[in-house]
Automatic annotation (TrEMBL), chain B:
Protein name, as recorded: ABC transporter permease
Keyword Membrane: yes
Lineage: Bacteria, Bacillati, Bacillota, Bacilli, Bacillales
Membrane topology listed for this record: Multi-pass membrane protein
Organism: Cohnella fermenti
Xref: InterPro entries: BPD_transp_1_N, MetI-like, MetI-like_sf
TrEMBL record, chain C:
Gene Ontology biological process terms in this record: peptide transport
Keywords: Signal
InterPro entries in the record: Peptide/Ni-bd (IPR030678), SBP_5 (IPR039424), SBP_5_dom (IPR000914)
Residue ranges of every copy of the Solute-binding protein family domain listed in the record: 99-454
Protein name per its UniProtKB record: ABC transporter substrate-binding protein
Highest taxon, organism lineage: Bacteria
Keyword Signal: yes
GO terms assigned for molecular function: peptide transmembrane transporter activity
GO cellular component, one term: periplasmic space
Pfam family, one: SBP_bac_5
Signal peptide: 1-24
Native organism: Cohnella fermenti
UniProtKB/TrEMBL annotation, chain D:
A single GO BP: transmembrane transport
Protein name: ABC transporter permease
Principal location class: membrane
UniProt feature coiled coil, ranges: none
Organism, scientific name: Cohnella fermenti
Localisation: Cell membrane
């Protein structure tokens, strides 16, 4: 705990100094969000002072390896973790001018599924196996819109149709295990869209699906985003997906946003060593088959032993003593492109050579 | 469905055969005979012999067994040697009190165990959870008859709140009926409660970690709905299994609890019948109880389908 | 919890048998409900009650077990006979002085040679099915009784009833028997009068069509729960002051429920709470508790003896010195206290017969009674050359007093050097083992009083295999002796001999306790509870 | 991550890794033991009870059978710490001797049941025709209401401590046999058993050297529960009067006697009752703890199910 707090304090103050007052127009404005879990061996920081804002209708991608805190961050926004773990939040999450972290549990429930919805990674396990899908879609309508059973079912049918499920009249009575993975994910999306939310958080919605289905689902999300004008926070580890649909990207590592920029710049000009590593590890159809696929050395350290200084230090080929002792601030490299790295200028200019990995 | 039932019933045949033969042999090598209870201490050997002959106990055991099985196929369990009524009638008259007792015990067990089990799982490692875990551990270690004695001592003898024993049929009024069943119900229900509580807790814990719980919560449902409508139903199959098992052991438990609290149920009937060497009743009760046990298991199996559509479809 | 067969089912069957052969001299026992002079039920207070008092329409009595049958001729169960006594009647019955008194009979004549009794029936008596009682019914019932009841078979051999006209029956005996009316009146396996058709249709296992002439009819028998009797509105009562089983029967309460409550604690709690108006066989452990209860009246009456029987036919106790050693070791006071819990509920007395019964009460052999002499016992053991052979005490936990007594005796015998083991089993097994004399050496049973010494189990060979010429001769003398004083002298000698030989030894005399609610009036206790004149104030 | 496995330094690293893993494994199992409170508490309480059962009677100045009828039903006092029973016997002494009896019967039943269950289980798993016969008999005996079976057996055999052991062994063996059989069936299908067979091992050798040892850890867990159930069942049988005959100071006997004096002598219910609960509780905890220790995966699956049948309600 104690070793964590200076870092988060730092990032928080830097964020404060950057934008003095809250942005009234923003759909979502996250400021210095920090999420900690109490564990048997003390508190663990999973999200460390994250700040970003998104406008209505925007699709923002969050990328990073598994374990980097993407899911925790997204679930922190709608406080899904309240129930499962001993969790504490710091910072602020503003949704259209309302601060979520300080809402009472009952007010918070009125936000969930209503103004903000979520779609999860594995559709089969994310649906309750014991209820027909129609009921599961109708459930949030009955909860938030106070619809009668009949009205809710009618609306559910409409939603199913909108998500493009074939013969929805028949499917509506079926159980999750009777549907294919793609259809299940469409059902998940129908559930999420039931109350026409302002914000959809999609947590790796395509990871568990076949490639062809993936494309269909992505298309659906983009189409619905356009039609309904909702913001989409798209969490993925797949940079290819990001490039297809997102307007801008945040790269996360160990609970922090280490780099954020527009999608175009992501591929053209990644500055953070971690982002560079991610991009180089994408297999390319047009690439040289004989070239070995790049792998980022090492693995993501566990949250319990996050390094001091720069969080990427254990795997960064450019790291030095300064990286190990001091955490770099989130600096603006260019308009709309910020990152956390002491040496990104040197790396960009080629002045800094990659050293041996680790020590 | 029917085929499934038929298969289940057929698989029962060898089990029943083993049980009935074992019962038959066991009771016929028990020393003493029905004459003791019927004729009393003064009976002469010739009186006893005459009685045994009249009842057909002088014939070989195998022949008696075959006659009895033959009777079964005609739906005839024989006549009680002591009660002067058909065994079927004796059993059905005694099933009522046992059924009432079992229901009270199970209701007490479920009312206690399911909510506490759910809360313990929900507030895992909290003080409540610790309490629930300790309760279920102690609950499993206190045998029903001991609990019955303690309840008699404190609630009946010291506090005079409830009658310490006895029974009144439902016809005498609802309170008259149930006030006799509360202490026996608690005595019998506690162990069931402990077992069900333990299972509810662990099964809920497992379900609460599943993904769809997050989905349900992300819809903004109230926690009560999350827990009861979604988590509990998903956690219910193992709980149901334990409930089925405990319902089965309720009959066994009733044997002791009914004798302690003097409830004229099937347990008391069989204990009395063993003492009276009322062979036909013993056979009838053992058969009935076994069938009941199987029936309960069958009902539980069918309930699985009602709880979980996947089970239903798999069977088609 | 444990099903207790009231002594009635088995052992107190003996209590009932006491009356099979009764003594006609009425002075031997006052026999009433207050025989012991202890706490009394309110049977005499009926008259003083204000006429306007209102009474409940049912009386509930808690008894210890379900009777095996109500067919009196086939059973020795006291409980069965108590209940059946409300439904059925006999030609004669015993009054409070144990004297035969007519019930269904009106009068009788005895022939000169004592072989023929001509009995005139009371007229206007109807069965519960509406049929009028005739001599045919009596003849059928009595002849069945002569054929089925093992008492009648042995005591009235080749006797026979016939009808001389519609209201007269004739009993012919093979040889004279001065006690024949007492036999006809005794409660044990009493000769109930059924309609002839019921007798003719009777299956071998016994009658289940319970149609009698008594003040109550059987309304319902709920197996293992209760027997419900309702008042017989057409009942034609005999006249006379109620006394024992005789005299006027009013059927004062419209409904009587006999609840089968094997659990002692339940009977006790039930009578305290007013759930039951009468509770039978109050366990001695609860005596004090109930005495202190202002709502409950306790009546205790002499129940019988707790007796140790030594198996002289086989095993270690064939040796009289060993038997004497065992008897010498007994501390009867401890045994009785352990068995009956309260000194008010037992009495130390060496007699095998009821100490209140002047004809037979005897203290012969008292030097062998309650000796508690360990030195003597050890000496006798040494003299007998006891080699540590195992002594087996036979008992059953189904009778708590016998069980407790046996455990104390085991300890006492151990103290003097016997190697003792208890063989304990459920009642059915106990009965079977009792007849296998090689399996046990000593047994304690509680036995109801007998009315004459020859009926004592202590002198009955089939009981524990006692085979002694002198005992047999004495019994024969007592049975045939016309002079009461001479018979008594012979009995003194016999009782002394039983003690001296240590064939059996009385440990003490116990009281039976019945608890009634103080609201019960007109209840009396004779051989069992007499309920037909009892009523319960609201 | 590792590109060239033949690199010597890599191999060294792997070896180090392996050693480290093994050490961690050991540490982990120590840790599991240290944090396995069920196992520790259960074992401690049970151990204390066993010590009391063996030493207690030696220290008591009273004889468990000696009657002082004049001292009957005396409440706890300096002379009689737990009071006296209905024959004036010292209750503490009887409860301590009762511990010997109950634990003794429990252990004997457990050993017999385990041995018989193991033999029946492994042979049933190995020989198909035998399996059918044995398992039908086991099914029958399991479906037979346990307490009735025990009571009927006791009525037939006669009341004595050794008959209690026989009756309870008959009651409990089938479920142990079933557990062992299901484990053995899994082991039997393992490829290595096939390999051993191919090398010409005899059936007996396969059964006793390869299959039986694998069944030991479930057996150990079950044994703890059988122990607990045996103690309970003995008490229940004695309580019903169908167990150990008096005057033996079994807990069930004391409890049975206590029932008729329940309004006068609370101590006769309370103290043997506590002794009974403590011993069953400690065995249950021991069983749970053993299972967590021997099969950590089961913890995640929940502790809900126990295979041993309950005889006493």
């Amino acid at each position: 705990m104690s070793q964590m707090s200076p870092a988060s304090e730092k990032s928080r103050t830097s964020q404060m100094s950057r934008s003095g007052q809250k942005d009234r127009t923003a759909l979502l404005d996250v400021r210095g969000l920090t999420t900690r879990f109490a564990t048997e061996r003390g508190p663990v920081t999973a999200v460390d002072g994250i700040s970003f804002a998104m406008e209505p209708g925007e699709i923002i991608g969050i990328v990073g390896e598994s374990g980097c805190g993407k899911s925790v961050m997204s679930q922190s926004i709608i406080r899904l973790l309240d129930y499962t773990d001993h969790v504490s939040y710091e910072g602020e999450v503003w949704l259209s001018g309302e601060e979520l972290l300080r809402l009472s549990p009952s007010r918070m429930r009125k936000v969930r599924g209503n103004r903000v919805s979520m779609v999860f990674q594995d559709p089969l396990t994310s649906l309750d196996p014991l209820y027909p899908i129609g009921d599961q879609i109708a459930e949030s309508l009955r909860q938030h819109r106070r619809l009668s059973r009949k009205e809710a079912q009618a609306r559910a049918l409409e939603l199913l149709r909108m998500t493009g499920i074939p013969s929805p009249e028949q499917r509506i009575k079926e159980y999750p295990h009777q549907l294919s993975g793609g259809m299940q994910q469409r059902v998940m999306i129908a559930i999420a869209l039931a109350c026409e939310p302002q914000l959809l958080i999609a947590d790796e919605p395509t990871t568990a699906l076949d490639v062809t289905i993936q494309a269909q689902i992505l298309e659906l999300i983009v189409e619905l985003n356009r039609r309904l004008g909702m913001g989409v926070l798209f969490i993925t580890h797949d940079l290819g997906v990001v490039s297809e649909i997102c307007t801008s990207v945040k790269v996360m590592y160990l609970g922090q946003i280490v780099e954020e920029m527009t999608t175009a710049r992501l591929f053209a000009n990644p500055l953070h060593p971690y982002t560079q590593g991610l991009i180089r590890s994408i297999p390319r159809l047009d690439g040289d088959r004989r070239r070995k696929l790049h792998v980022i050395e090492g693995t993501v350290p566990s949250l319990a032993d996050r390094p001091e200084g720069c969080k990427f230090v254990t795997r960064c080929p450019y790291a030095d003593a300064k990286c190990r002792s001091e955490e770099p601030p989130l600096e603006t490299a260019e308009e709309g492109h910020r990152l956390k790295c002491w040496y990104y200028r040197e790396i960009r200019s080629g002045a800094r050579e990659a050293t041996q990995y680790g020590e | 469905m029917l085929a499934y039932l038929a298969k289940r019933l057929l698989s029962l045949v060898p089990v029943l055969l083993v049980i009935t033969i074992a019962t038959f042999m066991l009771i016929h090598i028990m020393p003493g005979g029905p004459a003791a209870a019927i004729l009393g201490l003064e009976a002469t050997q010739s009186d006893t012999d005459a009685l045994n002959e009249a009842m057909g106990f002088d014939r070989p055991i195998a022949e008696q067994y075959i006659n009895w099985i033959g009777g079964l196929f005609r739906g005839d369990l024989g006549d009680s040697l002591f009660l002067h009524q058909p065994v079927g009638q004796a059993i059905s008259e005694h099933l009522g009190p046992t059924f009432s007792l079992a229901v009270v015990a199970e209701v007490i067990a479920l009312l206690l165990a399911i909510p506490l089990g759910i809360l313990a799982a929900y507030k895992r490692d909290s003080a409540l959870d610790q309490l629930v875990r300790s309760l279920s551990l102690v609950g499993m270690a206190v045998p029903g008859f001991l609990l019955a004695l303690f309840l008699m001592l404190f609630v009946g003898v010291r506090l005079h709140w409830l009658p310490i024993a006895g029974y009144a049929p439902l016809a005498d009024g609802v309170w008259a009926h149930y006030r006799y069943l509360i202490l026996p119900g608690i005595s019998l229900g506690t162990i069931q409660a402990a077992l069900i509580m333990r299972m509810t807790r662990s099964s809920m814990l497992e379900v609460l970690h599943l993904n769809f719980i997050k989905t349900v919560r992300s819809k903004g449902l109230r926690e009560s709905k999350v827990l009861l409508k979604h988590a509990l139903r998903n956690a219910f199959i193992p709980i149901l299994t334990v409930i089925g098992q405990t319902f089965g052991t309720l009959v066994t438990g009733a044997v002791i609890i009914e004798t302690i609290f003097n409830i004229p149920g099937i347990g008391q009937l069989v204990i009395n019948s063993i003492e009276r060497r009322d062979y036909t009743v013993i056979q009838g009760v053992v058969l009935t109880v076994t069938l009941l046990y199987v029936l309960i298991n069958l009902i539980v199996d069918l309930l699985y389908g009602a709880v979980d559509p996947r089970v239903r479809l798999d069977r088609k | 919890m444990r099903k207790k067969w009231r002594s009635g089912l088995g052992l107190s069957a003996a209590a009932v048998l006491a009356f099979t052969v009764a003594c006609s001299n009425g002075n031997n026992n006052n026999g009433g409900s207050n025989a012991s002079g202890s706490a009394s039920p309110a049977n005499s207070s009926t008259a003083s009650q204000p006429a306007a008092a209102s009474y409940k329409d049912s009386l509930k009595i808690a008894v210890t077990a379900q009777p095996p049958t109500l067919d009196s001729a086939t059973t020795a169960s006291a409980l069965a006979l108590d209940i059946a006594g409300n439904i059925f009647e006999t030609l004669f019955t015993l009054n409070g002085n144990y004297e035969p008194t007519p019930v269904l009979a009106e009068s009788y004549e005895k022939s000169e040679d004592g072989l023929t009794y001509t009995i005139k029936l009371r007229q206007g008596v109807k069965f519960h099915n509406g049929k009028e009682l005739t001599s045919d019914d009596v003849v059928a019932s009595m002849n069945r009784w002569l054929a089925t009841s093992s008492r009648a078979k042995t005591l009235l051999e080749e006797a026979n009833f016939s009808a001389s006209d519609a209201t007269t029956v004739v009993l012919k005996l093979a040889k004279p028997n001065p006690d024949v009316l007492v036999l006809l009146s005794a409660q044990a396996a009493f000769p109930a009068i059924f309609p002839k058709e019921v007798i003719e249709a009777a299956p071998a296992e016994g009658i289940t069509d319970y149609i009698g002439t008594g003040p109550y009819k059987l309304a319902e028998w709920k197996q293992d729960q209760y027997i419900h009797l309702v008042r017989n509105d057409d009942y034609a009562s005999p006249e006379g002051e109620p006394s024992g089983f005789a005299g006027k029967k009013e059927a004062a309460t419209p409904n009587i429920y006999y609840y089968f409550v094997p659990d002692n604690a339940t009977r006790v709690a039930g009578v305290k709470s007013g759930e039951y108006d009468v509770a039978d066989s109050i366990p001695t452990e609860n005596f004090e508790e109930l005495s202190a209860d202002s709502n409950v009246a306790l009546s205790s009456y002499p129940g019988g003896t707790l007796t140790a029987f030594l198996n002289s036919s086989e095993g270690a106790f064939k040796n009289e010195k060993l038997r004497q050693a065992a008897v010498a070791a007994l501390n009867d006071e401890d045994i009785l206290l352990a068995s009956f819990a309260n000194p008010d509920l037992y009495k130390l007395d060496p007699g095998f017969m009821n100490p209140d019964q002047t004809q037979w009460a005897s203290t012969a052999g008292s030097e062998y009674y309650n000796q508690n002499d360990q030195e003597k016992a050890k000496q006798l053991l040494k003299d007998a050359g006891y080699n540590g052979e195992k002594i087996v005490l036979l008992t059953t936990p189904d009778y708590s007093e016998m069980y407790a007594a046996t455990l104390v005796i085991q300890e006492e015998l151990k103290q003097v050097g016997f190697n003792v083991e208890v063989l304990s089993s459920d009642f059915a097994t106990f009965l079977k083992t009792k007849d296998e004399h090689s399996k046990w050496n000593l047994m304690v049973t509680s036995n109801g009083y007998q009315l004459i010494p020859p009926q004592l189990l202590a002198v009955t060979q089939s009981w524990v295999g006692l085979d002694d010429a002198q005992v047999k001769a004495s019994v024969a003398t007592i049975s045939s002796e016309a002079d009461p004083a001479a018979a008594k002298a012979e009995w003194d000698k016999l009782q002394g001999y039983l003690y001296e030989q240590a064939y059996s030894a009385v440990i003490g005399h116990y009281n039976e306790v019945v608890a009634t609610s103080k609201k019960v009036e007109g209840f009396s206790q004779f051989v069992g509870p007499v309920l037909w004149n009892a009523k319960v104030a609201k | 991550m590792v590109e060239n496995i033949h690199d010597q330094s890599q191999l060294d690293r792997l070896g180090q890794l392996g050693r480290k893993l093994r050490r961690e494994q050991r540490l982990l199992s120590c840790f599991r033991l240290r944090t396995n409170y069920d196992l520790l508490i259960g074992a401690a309480v049970l151990g204390a009870l066993i010590v009391l059962a063996f030493i207690g009677p030696l220290l008591s100045p009273y004889d468990p059978l000696e009657m002082k009828v004049l001292d009957r039903l005396k409440p706890p006092s300096a002379a009689h710490w737990l009071g006296t029973d209905e024959f004036g016997r010292d209750l503490l002494t009887r409860v301590l001797h009762g511990a010997r009896l109950s634990l003794g019967i429990g252990i004997t039943v457990t050993l017999l049941t385990s041995l018989l269950g193991l033999i029946i289980g492994v042979y049933a798993a190995f020989y198909k025709p035998l399996d059918h016969i044995l398992m039908r008999i086991c099914d029958g005996l399991i479906a037979f209401p346990g307490i009735l079976l025990a009571i009927a057996l006791m009525a037939t055999l006669g009341a004595s401590a050794s008959n209690v052991i026989i009756a309870l062994t008959i009651v409990f063996t089938p479920s142990i046999a079933r557990t062992i059989r299901s484990t053995a069936l899994v082991v039997r299908e393992q490829p290595y058993i096939e390999a051993i067979r191919a090398q010409g091992a005899t059936n007996a050798r396969i059964i006793w050297l390869h299959i039986a040892p694998n069944a030991l850890s479930p057996l150990l867990v079950q044994a703890a529960f059988v122990f607990a159930e045996a103690i309970l069942s003995e008490a229940a049988l004695s309580f019903l009067g169908a167990g150990i005959p008096a005057p033996a100071p079994s807990w069930g006997n004391i409890l049975q006697a206590s029932k008729s004096v329940i309004s006068k002598a609370w101590w006769m219910v309370t103290f043997p009752g506590i002794a009974l609960v403590l011993s069953v509780l400690s065995l249950n905890m021991l069983g749970d703890g053993l299972r967590d220790f021997l099969d950590p995966r089961s913890k995640r699956k929940g502790k809900g199910s126990r295979r041993v049948r309950r005889v006493a309600p």
